[in-house]
Amino acid sequence: MSASPLRQEFKETTVDVSVPQLRKNTAGFWKRHQGDPAAVTAVLIGLWTGAADTNVRMGIAMTLGPAAHTVPDAMEFLLGTVPEDDDWRVQEALAKGFDWLCAVRGWEKSQQVIEQWLQHQHHHVRRAAAEGPRVWTKRPYFADHPDDALELLGRLRADPSEYVRKSVGNSLSDISKTHPDLTLASLSEWSQEPEAAWVITRACRHLKDMRAEQTKRLLAAMKG
Length: 224
Fold this sequence. Notes:
Methyltransferase, Methionine Synthase (B12-binding Domains), Chain A, domain 1, elongated, 2 domains, mainly alpha
């Protein structure tokens, strides 16, 4: 398919639909055209310029995720252009695109790209890496290696951006539901770091009920 019909098809796929429908539609679009990811990337990058419709930009941020597995231009766009968008909904879509990228690559094989995003200079990229895989321990590989998920998330426990720390704390709280003792052990290791206190407190939301005494001692120790 030439660029113009592909461009029109994508616009029709994304404009004036709900977010759940947008996800469904972009998945269908990718399934139809994944045989030529370079062409998809070129069309979507071209469509982004001047795209006033938020849904279109959200759809692009999502769909470039799987394309970035094999197309460097897609990865470059996700890391360089999408994070500069001021609309928070587009940043939510970036997180979804990252999740989709890792699913296509395979989660065990995605360690390097996860680390790359977690240490990126832009806070929107770091936040996408922490938020996109939620719930981390429901993802293949991390379901069997929750300690690896905790270690990766822990790298952002003192992130300068509250936006990032919020996603980190929420993701840790998710993990605590099924791995309370393992999560408590990680939080305890970080408890002497004042910069980590905000994330630790947020991560303890479920632990306050599941491991009440241990969590109480942990939070009290942080207060000195």
